[in-house]
Amino acid sequence: MKTLNIMIKPASSLCNMRCKYCFYADVSNMRSVCSYGLMTEETVNAILEKVKADLNEGDKVSFAFQGGEPTFAGLDFFERFVSIVSQWNGVTVSYALQTNGVLLDDDWCDFLKGHNFLVGISFDLLPDAHGSVRVDEKGESTYKRVVESIKLLQKHKVEFNVLCTLTNPIARHPE
């Protein structure tokens, strides 16, 4: 029995935030093609065909989605992805999503709960610490929007954790 862990970037480097310490923005800006856009249905099908071909009954596979911001791919993308994988018999499948949370709503949370996604929320805990570095395209704080997304995840009982960047201001307030 084997376990596969597959990381998927369905939105390449596309993101609705401009975090001041985002290493990925720096990396993507140095590439000859900054963003490869949204993952096509053909690419999804090719990935899943190759993964499925390598699996046997009793195997486990974990799909982790990250970005840029993976929710940019849209809920339809994820619904199609999960629909294809749900047809695999005899394989244990788990899902994870690392997101800034800004695009989450009730529909997203229903979907995430319904398919047992573990959600990682990028959140720097303290209003000033988060708001000074995790900003939107207009340079404005996303703190309140992320807090609302966390409340939505809690309301829908979606399992989640927080990915916090440990900065000096946060380290000074461990409580």
**Which stretches of 5+ consecutive residues score pLDDT under 50?**
none
Please state how the strands of the largest beta sheet are arranged side by side.
Answer: 1-2-3-4-5
Distance N to C terminus: 42 Å
Task: Estimate the strand proportion.
Answer: 15-25%
Any idea what the shape is? globular
Q: What characteristics describe this protein?
A:
single chain; 175 residues; alpha/beta; 7 helices; 17% strand
Tell me what you see in this structure.
The structure is a single chain. The mean pLDDT is 90. The protein is built from 7 helices and 5 strands, in the order βααβαβαβααβα. It is globular and about 50 Å long. A 5-stranded parallel sheet has the order 1-2-3-4-5, covered by helices on one side. By secondary structure, the chain is an alpha/beta fold.
Task: Please provide a brief summary of the model.
The protein is of the alpha/beta class. The protein has helices at residues 23-30, 41-53, 75-85, 106-114, 127-133, 143-155, 168-171; strands at residues 3-8, 60-65, 92-99, 117-122, 160-163.
Topology readout:
Elements: E1 3-8, H1 23-30, H2 41-53, E2 60-65, H3 75-85, E3 92-99, H4 106-114, E4 117-122, H5 127-133, H6 143-155, E5 160-163, H7 168-171
Parallel strand pairs: 1-2, 2-3, 3-4, 4-5
